[in-house]
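Q: Joint fold for the lines below.
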Amino acid sequence: MDEVVVYRQRRGIEAVLLLLAIAVAVGGYFLIHLDIDAELPTEWPAAVVVLTTLALVAHLVIRWRIPYADPIILPCVMLLNGLGLAMIHRLDLGGNERMHSAELQLGWTAVAVAVFCAVIFALREIRTLNRFWMLLFIFGMVLLLLPLVPGLGVEKNGSQIWIRLNLGFGAYSFQPAELAKIVLTIAFAAYLAGTREALVAAGRKIMGVELPRLRDFAPLLLMWLASLAVLVFQKDLGTSLLFFGLFVVMLFVSTERLLYPILGAALFAGGAYAGFLLFTHVQTRVLAWLDPFADYDRNYQIITAQFGMAWGGSIGTGWGLGRPNLTPLAKTDFIAAAFGEELGVAGLSAIIMVYAIIVARGIRAALGSNDSFGKLLASGLSFVFAIQVFTIIAGVTRLLPLTGLTTPFMSQGGSSLVANWATVALLLIVTHHARRPQTAKPRDPVVNLASDETIELKAAA
Amino acid sequence: MNTMNGPIRKISVLAMVMFAALLINVSVSYVLRYDSLNENTLNRRVMDARYAQQRGPIMVGNNPIASSEKVKDRFKYLRSYSDGPLYAPITGFYSYYYGASALEDTQSAELAGQADSQFIDQLVDKLAGSEPPGGTVETTITGKAQRAAWKALAGRTGAVVALDAATGAVKALVTSPSYDPNELATHDLDASKAAWERLNADPAKPMANRATREIYPTGSAFKLITAAAALEQGLVDGPEGLVDATAYQLPLSSKVMEGKCGGDEITLAKALVVSCNPAFARLGAELGESGLQRQVEAFGFDQAPLKDIPSTASRLYSKAAHPDGIDLAQAAMTGIGEFEVGATPLQMAMIGAAILNDGVVMRPYVVDTITTADLKPVFRAVPEQLSQAVSSDTALALREMMVDVVVNGTGYRAAMNGVEVGGKTGTYAPESSPKRYAWFVAFATELNVAVCAFVEDADLENTEIGGARAAAPIAKAVMEALR
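A: Joint structure:
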């Protein structure tokens, strides 16, 4: 007999943690100014009020629409976003001339929170998306391959994962993979929730290994080819790994067959190795990873980032006291290196832990969810988030070859911020469904009949 | 519904492994990679931070000749030199692009407060959250003597070294022309670069340390060494022993060295007073390469004598040009300081000091004391005996002969009232130039100091009188300043 667990809402905890997150971010912001100018800027109350208001709005929308949502995720996101804003502001001050990217990024945070609220309002009954999986799949694939369209895609740092839209009021750059990641996760979750029975059941045994039918196997091959196309034409190992990893993991979760991840890993490794042999741009990245000092000028960025982190040492130089501006693209790709420099190994590790907490809460939601779609969606979103954080930070710290992915919630850039806040909105919706009391729609009539005596009401730990 | 929880748990383990890999990689980098990254000279952050450290002063007496001033730019402290060109060979420079030289280089860790001996203070400062202030380097230089030497050189190319004969402490160390280290230490890096290029391109070589790093033919000043070797190795029986002063045809050569020494047989003392060439050439040939080599080594040749600032070893002849040694004619020419003899003014001052100090050569040193910012001494120089160059009897004989040179001979311009002064002149005519190298090696017995004055571009005839005219007054001026 199933036990029914009734979770407490814990919205008060969320509010307290949000205040703590804002306090940490604002503390960083203050320290930057105290360390650089020994005084606070005149506009600090405005900055604090805007950030606090955004957190309050997000919190109230959750209270109103999805009160059973996980209380830890939003404060973690707010903390990362706030720290990212502080660091971008610090990099604004450190350049030869004062820049204003942090103000713009704060504006994008407002847009992102608005999108977050909109997703919560519009998609609270997220299962309605189930029906449109084919449409979402096609849309996601188009987005993924969009940077390859001539005239639209632009090459940045050797990778072609950006598009530039020329709107009436000016050019606007956008990484379509950020949106594709969400759309495809929803599509995969919906598709696999519907077909997982077939994928598991049918198949032939060849040499003791049970293979799925070609018809069910085809999507795996299709995704493999798509990810190879990303690797070869967009020249970005990270994006390629992101999507293929996402698909393989969701396939594994839905079928519970270890064959898929093993096969997937082998296919990806083979494809990546072939790419390394065939394409010089892949070789360049790999060589920069193995021995950056072999070509100081070409690998200047990765080298100077290592210098910065080494200089920061265990506890960093302190906010505003390092020189992260020496690293090109410190606000975007290499923001983790800026944290490593000014907050040290300790600070960077703490940030990695906050990302890990978000992933852990997301997977917890997947475990607690009570329908296939919710489970697949939560595990897919969490895992794709984990891969993204892993590949970019691993690239910056020389664990893996560098990729052009953004650091979620921290990197400067609107599209990434909006997409990641939307991801969090979806995750929170799933957690809301997973955690809310299940009495409204009992699945098991036996339990229902005996409910008065036998259902144990228990609070979550 | 728990159907898919198995694989979800498995991917959660995979996610955990990924995050653990990130954390482990960052920690392992800290342990294994960061030290070498921080030592890398391409690491601008570390280089700049080092350049921006507050360094302690370099002192001459109570007068800081190099100090760090707080300024409002990214390097925070500007290194400045109060009397730049005068003390440049001692302080060296401290620049962004070109590193440091002389004491700024060899005492860099102490000046920055980063030396091992200052470890406890560093720890205390680190715990207190402040930067460790640099240590103070006190030199052995006497400002008055340094200024006197500079003034006496009067812009001519040359060098002066004064040593405390008993300890080896350097009392004056001047090289001319000099340069202003302020020009290289400036935070205007373009100006620093321009100054560096200009100083290096200057044909007068203002950055060359002529006192310790350049070797020159010594001319007759070398006769001190030949005389020392002849006495030590028993070729001549004391200063009153007779030597052959007649005209001398060099072995295996048609070249004849004129006599004109005031007699066919004269005493060694007389030969030194009149600086008799054929007498010392004969002694040189008699001593041969091995006899001369033994004596110059005992005086400190063939090793860099000074450790606090860079110095060059003096040589008897060029071992590279003559790997199989030199013949008798060459040894004869070497005996009068010709052929390929090359010595630094510092080395020649050490010879004067050894003669005054009973034949004992003391290692020269420039750093006397190093103290922390709060005046705790962390280093105090201990005089070190380098070698016993000659016996005390020979030393005494040489001393009396040198006094004779000043009282009755070519060195009369160095005589001082009420102080016993000894000296030996030297003149050398380089083939490439109409100018002369003028030397004067001297000591003042009661003051216990030895001085070597060297002028590279003396405008005079190639005579002993000429060499003494250019260099002896400089030596005298320095000794007067040390009185």
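Q: Anything notable?
A: The radius of gyration of chain B is 28 Å. The mean pLDDT of chain B is 89.
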